[in-house]
Amino acid sequence: MTLQQCYQALGGDYDDVLGRLRSERLVQKFVLKFLDDGSYRLLLDSIAAGDAQEAFRAAHTIKGMCQNLSFTLLANSVSELTDCLRKGSLEGHEQYLPKVQEDYEKTVAAIKEFASSNL
Amino acid sequence: MPDRVSDKRERILVVDDSEMNRSILADMLSDKFDVTEVENGEVALQLLAKEAHSFSLMLLDIVMPIKDGFDVLTEMNRTGLIEDLPVIMVSAETASAQIERAYELGATDFIMRPFDASIVYRRVLNTISLYAKQRKLMSVIEQQIAEKEQNNSLMVDILSHIVEFRNGESGLHILHVRTITDFLLRKLIKKTTRYSIAEEDIPVISLASALHDIGKIGIDDKILNKPGRLTPEEFAVMKSHSMIGASMLNSLSMYKDDPLVKHAYEICRWHHERWDGKGYPDGLKGDEIPIAAQIVALADVYDALTSERVYKPAFPKERARDMILHGECGEFNPLLLECFADEFDNICAIFTGNISRNIAQNDIRQIAKAALRSQGVTASERTLKLLDYERMKYNFYAQLTDEIQFEYNVENDLLRLNPVGANKLGVDTEIIAPASSAKLKAQLGEGWFEGMKKVLRRTKPDSPEFSRECQLLLGGERRWYKVIMRLIWAEEIEPTISSVIGKVVDVNTTHVAISELKEKSIRDPLTGLLNREGVNEAIEHKFDTFPERRFAVAVLDVDDFKSANDIYGHMFGDKVLQELSERLLHSTRVHDLCARIGGDEFLIVFDYSPEYDIHSIVARVHHSLCGRVDDFDLSVSMGIVEMTSKAQKFPSLFKKADAALYVSKNGGKGSYTFYDDTMKGASPRK
User: Fold this and answer.
1) Which residues of chain A lie closer than 8 angstroms to B91, CB-CB?
2) Mean pLDDT lowest for which of B153-167, B470-484, B534-548?
3) Of residues B91, B92, B117, nearest to A20 (C-beta)
4) A114 vs chain B: nearest CA distance in angstroms?
5) Among the listed residues B408, B435, B405, B407, the one whose alpha carbon sits nearest the alpha carbon of residue B419
6) Choices 3.30.750.24, 3.40.47.10, 1.10.1240.10, 3.40.50.2300: CATH for B11-115
7) Which helix (H) or strand (E) is B38 found in, with range?
8) What gap in Å lies between CA B545 and CA A67, rounded to an integer?
């Protein structure tokens, strides 16, 4: 699996990210780093604990990373969740969280497949 | 790399809670910058508190745990760090209210996620360069201001100390007044906003206070340093020092708007005014008196009271304070008296401590002292100025001229030349012991100095000028120069020459022109022989100069010259005369004189040694003169007279020779005749 195929699988924009980061090596490095980021875990834990502020920050961080990596699919769904959480309460998050979870799994699965085929 | 700001790598602080975002930024920038990453605002502020100035730029996320981006900006505003450290916000935030707030808090720029590597790099670089330039400019300006203030301060110190020393004061008065002024001003602006004095005006006013008495420069020494109280008349003169000082400053038209000069003007003019209008020179009342002058007035009075003067002892500090507070030294602004009472202990403390806070003060005092010492000892300032003026004038003319100008000082055996002269002679402008200078000898001849000494010995104090024309070999060319000298005599009982000044003017052109003219005037243009005037002069000279030699005068003319002219024309006539001149020059010797004295009349003065026979000389010459010129048979008649006594003058000799010629003509042409007394009166001519 190539990096480009990986982007196709996770619903991202490979040309866009390459245009901004300028090197395939860098893109690959950060794509792989995405697996280690704890923000998604923090998001789920904060929601479970009812901590809306922390949940907002976690969603916001994921949004930022996705934007930087041109993970368009996940960026869109997490962006909607971020806006929902911005008001400071968890109210209404159920409407957006499942889509985020679905897109996140899809993204991580694609990256993992890419990682295993390139190791 | 043209993008480089400096050789030193700039350091950038990246503040973002997402490790990946920090990492992306670090990767984009680490080629050109040193990047430090921290994960939230709290850590960032801790780091900045320690080493804010090691960073050139901060990239700041907004949404972070513990302390977010706005918290960081707010804190930086509180500490003022926001002025020095540029902040670029990096955020996924797109809400315009958030962006607006960041800018309001002093963020320099805003970069949206997702990051574009080249945009991030470019914005970071631009911001850093901009700030680096600003920092550089700031430091340049700060330095210039510091220098300017230092210069001002130095000048003021020197000036005021000159006044003090002239005034016979210790030099501390200025310092005291300045210190008290400073204290009172600081206290006053805490007490009231009535006077528009800013914190930064205080050093300027304090400095200006040092000039309060500069007008005393214009007061007569006798009054200024009079031991004892002044008479009412003298006091009136003394009082004028405030107006004198003011007008001195007023005349600095270029600096009129300078705050220092403005304050100094107020202080000089009005530091003897009093709150109740009873002061001088203008009798201003209350706050009509500028506050700076009011303060200096009080400071001046206090220091005068606590200092010893010729007419009074020093009062104890507390006594002086009370005298002022009770109006014994004139009325002061009540508010100012309050400040004075409040600050009294502080003022005393300063003065009992080490008073010379500043080592430079001492140096300045030395300069001022030296300035005073050198002044007025031998020459008044006016004389020095005049001297200076004359020097300038002299130098100006010396540069313009083409002449060699010199000045020889006898005592020092030193010859000074103007640059033009030194250049012409190929020597230095100053020559010690010129008599032994090989270069001068080469230019002026071996014995030039002895020759000059001889001339100098002949001059006398009542006729000290001397001039002579002579030929000098300058720059490899021998030309005529006129040397003009004047001796300076030292005024002693036995007058001696102290120096010689003079110049050497190139008169070659004139000289040559004159001698050419002279030459023309004594020569016959057709033949180049001497004419009548020329030969007259030459004969006299010859007779005078060579008394041991013998002379004979011969007069000759061309036989039938008129027919040569008539037959062959004037051109041919001229040719005959020219041919005859040639033959004359060839047949006579160097010391003989030949002249054409009329149309076809010539004259020869034979100059011969006694052992020669004049008869044979004449025979040879006469023979060589005759002979054909083209078709014309040139023959010459000649009459000769020997000079038998030194008493014989040329006119009488000429007459005798002419008489002999007449005899020759009558006796047949083409012959010569020696005069004898039988021929007396033979000449038919005038």
Assistant:
1) 64
2) B153-167
3) B117
4) 19
5) B405
6) 3.40.50.2300
7) strand B34-38
8) 124
pLDDT tens digit sequence for B471-500: 777 767 777 888 888 877 766 566 677 778
CA angle B599–B605–B609, rounded 5-degree value = 165
What ipTM goes with this model? 0.78
Give the span between the Cα atoms of A82 and B545, in whole angstroms.
133
The model's pLDDT over B221-231, given as tens digits with 9 standing for 90+, comes to 788 777 778 88
Residues of A in contact with B115 (CB under 8 A): 20-21, 68
Q: Which two tokens stand for residue B505?
A: 């003017």
Cα–Cα distance for residue pair B474/B512, rounded to 1 Å: 17
The C-alpha angle with vertex B258 and arms to B257 and B261, in degrees rounded to 5, equals: 105
Residue B528 in tokens: 């180049």
B439-B443-B444-B450 Cα dihedral, nearest 10 degrees: 20
CATH of B526-679, one of 3.30.300.20, 3.90.1720.10, 3.40.50.11890, 3.30.70.270: 3.30.70.270
For residue B159, the surrounding DSSP H or E stretch is helix B117-166
Question: Is the pLDDT at B445 greater than 70, yes or no?
Answer: yes
Query: Rounded to whole angstroms, how far apart are CA atoms B249 and B262?
Result: 8
How far apart CA B207 and CA B181 sit, in angstroms, is 9
For residue A70, which residues of chain B lie inside 8 Å, CB to CB?
Answer: 114
Residues of B in contact with A60 (CB under 8 A): 63, 92
Beta strands in B50-161 (DSSP E): 57-60, 87-91, 109-112
φ/ψ region of B241 (left if φ > 0, alpha if ψ in -120 to 50, else beta) reads alpha
Confidence band for B188, pLDDT divided at 50, 70 and 90: very high
Q: Which of A16, A60, A70 sits opposite B63 (nearest CB)?
A: A60
Q: In whole angstroms, what is the distance from residue B506 CA to residue B348 CA?
A: 76
CATH class of B147-374: mainly alpha
Distance CA B410, CA B125 (A): 74
Can B11-115 and B402-512 be said to share one CATH topology?
no
State whether residue B253 sits within 8 Å of chain A by CB: no
Q: What are the sequence ranges of the domains in chain B?
A: 11-115, 147-374, 402-512, 526-679
B402-512 CATH pick, 3.90.180.10, 3.40.190.10, 3.30.450.20, 3.30.530.20: 3.30.450.20
B289: helix, coil or strand? coil
- Structural domains for chain A: 3-117 (1.20.120)
Query: Scanning every residue of chain B, which has its alpha carbon at the shortest distance from the alpha carbon of A53?
Result: B65
- A36 to chain B: closest CA residue: B20
Which candidate in B14, B37, B63 is best for mutational testing of the A interface (most A CBs within 10 A)? Answer: B63
| B30 interfaces chain A, CB cutoff of 8 Å | no
By DSSP bridging, strand B57-60 and strand B87-91 are parallel
> Shortest Cα distance from A34 to chain B (angstroms)?
7
What is the dihedral sign for C-alpha B224, B228, B234, B236? positive
Q: What is the pLDDT of residues B638-647, one digit of tens each?
A: 999 998 877 7
**CA distance to partner chain A, nearest, from residue B4 (Å):** 21
Residue indicated by tokens 């009093």? B274
- For residues B512 and B6, give the distance between their C-alpha atoms in angstroms, rounded to a whole number: 73
Please name the residue of chain B whose CA is at the shortest distance from the CA of residue A39: B18
- Asked whether residue B11 carries a pLDDT value surpassing 80, the answer given is yes
Rounded CA-CA distance B488/B491 in Å is 9
Chain B, 56 to 75: residues with Cβ < 8 Å from chain A are 63-65
Q: Name the token pair of B672.
A: 């010569």
